[in-house]
């Protein structure tokens, strides 16, 4: 701001490697940006200027850009809240050339946003199926009287990944339903239960070559090893149970 750089913040941990693809996600909170790299929380950066002044995205330097996108299953131009109550414009996936800039559309209405909610049970297709580096994000609020809800990644009647927060048990159960049979449950939460009744959340699921990694509100929680060999056949997302959905990004 004011044509001068501020003080640098450095983290001496390099998540990027020459010749390797990467995925950067930026979550806007009311007081900071949360940055995740390849499905893992990397750094938090406190805001230094009002968010209302931020209206462009630029990429430059030694990088080949494959895609820059604001993804959402709502109609183009809908507004999608984060878990912190901040809103951003949701667009269909869009590609930009390296060094180009993205400017926010002034036609979008400013001012207070009244959160939309998605119907629950919620079902949507995953165009092209899953593959390493593809991710999905589910944002919502947990009712005060919630018992449980679940997120399924599936095809046909089989469920490749069943993610089931259970509030009375204070855990998130993970499993697969294949050939009409449930497999062994996974329940471990090294950092404890990250979801609470009455709270908003964002769950980010990143598909990697050997597993799904799950991040909740910017913090890595666990990995779930794939139990199916063909990830691309996973073409459907389901959300059911005690939850209010406000944003789904596929």
Automatic annotation (TrEMBL):
Record GO terms (molecular function): carbohydrate binding
Q: Where is the Galectin domain?
A: 1-71, 122-250
Presence of keyword Zinc: no
- Domain of life according to the entry: Eukaryota
Q: Which UniProt keywords apply?
A: Lectin
Residues of the signal sequence?
Answer: none
Gene3D superfamilies on file? 2.60.120.200
Acetylation is among the record's keywords: no
Q: Pfam families this protein is in?
A: Gal-bind_lectin
Which protein, by its recorded name, is this?
Galectin
What organism is listed for this UniProt entry? Chelydra serpentina (Snapping turtle)
Organism classification = Eukaryota, Metazoa, Chordata, Craniata, Vertebrata
């Amino acid at each position: 701001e004011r044509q001068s750089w501020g003080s640098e913040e450095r983290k001496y941990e390099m998540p990027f490697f020459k010749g390797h693809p990467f995925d950067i996600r930026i979550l806007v909170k009311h007081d900071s940006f949360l940055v995740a790299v390849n499905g893992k929380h990397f750094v938090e950066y406190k805001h230094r200027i009002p968010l209302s002044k931020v209206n462009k995205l630029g990429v430059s330097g030694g990088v080949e850009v494959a895609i820059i996108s604001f993804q959402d299953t709502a109609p183009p131009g809908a507004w999608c809240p984060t878990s912190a109550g901040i809103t951003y414009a949701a667009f269909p996936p869009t590609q930009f050339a390296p060094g180009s800039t993205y400017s926010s559309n002034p036609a979008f209405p400013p001012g207070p946003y009244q959160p939309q909610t998605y119907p629950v049970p919620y079902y949507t297709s995953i165009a092209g199926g899953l593959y390493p580096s593809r991710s999905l994000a589910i944002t919502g609020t947990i009712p005060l009287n919630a018992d449980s809800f679940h997120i399924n990644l599936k095809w046909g009647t089989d469920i490749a990944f069943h993610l089931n927060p259970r509030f009375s048990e204070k855990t998130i159960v993970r499993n697969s339903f294949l050939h009409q049979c449930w497999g062994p449950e996974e329940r471990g939460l090294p950092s404890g239960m990250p979801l609470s009744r009455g709270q908003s959340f964002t769950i980010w699921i990143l598909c990697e070559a050997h597993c799904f990694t799950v991040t909740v509100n910017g913090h890595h929680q666990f990995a779930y090893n794939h139990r199916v060999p063909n990830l691309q056949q996973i073409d459907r997302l389901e959300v059911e149970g005690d939850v209010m959905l406000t944003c789904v990004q596929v």
